[in-house]
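Notes from the pairing session

We agreed to fold both candidates in a single pass and log them together. This is the raw record for the first candidate, unedited. Please don't reformat it; downstream parsing expects exactly this layout.

Candidate A
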Amino acid sequence: MKRTLVLALAIASQVAAAHAADVDPFAVKSQFKDPLPDSLTWQGVTLFATLDLGAAYQTNGRPLGSVVSGLEYIPFTTTRNYTGQSISTITHSALEQSKIGVKIDEPLAFGWSAVGRADTGFDPLTGKLSDGCSSILQNAGLVYTQQNSNADSGRCGQAFNGVLYGGLSNKQYGTLTIGRQNSLQLDGIGAYDPMALSYAFSLLGYSGTNGGSGSTQAARWNNSAKYVYDFGPITAGAMYSNGGSNSGMFGNGYGLMVGGHYGGFSAQVNYTKEHGAVNLQSAVNDAVGSQTLAANISDNTTWSAMAKYTWQLGGSSPASYPTKARMAETPSDKFSIFAGYTHVDQANPSSPVLFGDAAGGYVLTSSATLPDNDAFTTDKVLQFFWAGAKYEWAWGLSVTGAYYHVNQNSYVADGAPCVAGGASKTDCSGNYDQVSLLADYVLSKHFDVYAGATYARVTNGLASGFPGTPGAKFGFAGTGTSVDTASFVTGFRVKI
């Protein structure tokens, strides 16, 4: 952590000195030599990787686990294990999931190209593949004060827990890919989230609920085909999956997308339908030492609309660039605004699931009541709203601010409605709010440093089950109706 702070201070002092002397701010970046080539490509195959490491302080969290060693950054989660403990720790993947993979773009003939991608996320602090499902089993049946970090995830130790697909692309006819792929919804929010799906600073990044149309495990679809077509400024896409056990979605799913751009404006609307999606329950619902996972099953319907506008503001002051030729070589400052809305409807599955596996092959608990096919006796509705702004200076610094809000209705779970209200049950109405601020300084194409802060709060039904609320288990019940946490994170990211 000390080294990170020293590097950040050194960068800040050089930037200040550069501006004080009224010299080219690119001179600051030029002192940081980039030893890496622009890309590692051979015969149309490109190796890529991201390593994201840093340090963090959190006002209300849980100790790091041996499986999920990063923080549970926000309280919009199934784990509900925040007990007021502050955490200071090394962390990872705050801006972006640390990962390694390859992508393919090889011209064939007549304008056709073979395309593909394979990547997997890993924990650089333990050397293990990302495995959220294992982290829940590690905490199965433990009281909150004994739990460490754990989280539901579609990354559950698979060899390729990110994506794995291949296909064909043609500028005239579009792109068709088949395999394990991001849902169209996940692709969409990735393009229109001001925080670019950051785990530490974005609800949309840390929680897979929005990208999975209600179910984290369905954010990436196995056994899927995706087609995307560009017609001038218009883009359209369609996606289908036949689902199956061990995929996060037992039934089929389909999605539609239409988007477009004009000048600095771009927008997109999505529609998604999923059948038999997996929603893992909190670890406290599993028996101590359990090797199976308790889960709810749902049919999900989602529609969303999102947009952004970018202004090109010109380069830095003419005093720094005395010749027109030098100014022409200088990229522009940019200012972007973002906004989006997602409506998620979860209902009981039309085809009940009685047994099977979650993502990564983890066996679901099978009993008279599990998997739970009646967790949404009446539909659960989540409404996501987000907005943000980002200013990018041509010399490498960007500053981003974002706000996220979620509203949950009062619904009936397992035939039992919310009666007492407040945080008495998880199916009572509730809200989530988060505000984040991030500064990121790109020193080269392959290296950047960052620092930021975020504050998040859940109330009423979305806070139920946390220690100190009426819905808490194992003797930790109380009268509270809200839970909040603040996180401060700094780090660096290396990309090839």
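Candidate B (folded immediately after A)
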Amino acid sequence: MPPSRARTTTALVLLLLATTACTGAQHESTPAPRSLPVSRQARQLRLPLDAYASTETETYLVEDAEDTLMRRCMNGRGMEWKTLPPVAVQDTEPPNLRRYGADEAESAHYGYHPHPDPPSVVRRSRAWDAREALPAEVQRAAYGPSGEGGCLKTADHQLVGDTPLPGHRTFNELTGKALETARRTPEVRDALRRWRTCMATAGYDYPDPYAAAGNKRWKTAEPTPGELATARTDVTCQKSAKLVTVWAAAETRVQHRLIRQNADRLREAKALKDRWLAAARHVLSHEGRTSHQHHLSDQ
């Protein structure tokens, strides 16, 4: 894996620490959706700490700016460098998808299985795969012997000088703490109890939505009828218990408190993130690579 790919997706990987793990595998035979099957509730769910982590769109934006500068560097060395194809706005996941359990729209189609990557994500992934097969000479020019040199290092310096990459350690620590703290509040415990009662009435015995999603029975190539039925009942019970609404409200209060308690650490992390984003927008606007994808990051 080329190093820039690993670095700029770090925030996305870390976000999974605070979300439900998906089970099962994706298969080429499954048709990719036109856009992600995500509910309105999931797309609208925002939490205070979101401001301190990179969204998928922001990650792609920085990646594209870095890639544009790498192309300039590689061309200067007499080598071709194909920039990555863009990812469409509708193909990016909202930051809190599955945070409190299965999403209604996803579960209707895929149960607890991960949805297939949409077309623009597939194209970008294939472009990364193609880079892993580049000749050794091109790899060295792009990344240097260490994997962090070459035109990658040149591009980063042109982008932000000596500004370090945004760290997400603080965000990860606090978002995980907020999730669990909110889970222990009386109102969330009550909502989870209502959810369990609803599930039990339908014949299911799970302590919480995470356990339902993580059942080893769902480790199949495709969602089974039993998995689909469970997932649909799960989200129906979430709605009747108002689980997501109650949990999100409780966590919002917890996150506001944690932000006040960790203001200096978070302010520093956000300043680094904002510096990279501003530099990326500047590069892309001057290179003519602005698109609806990049404008979304301003919202």
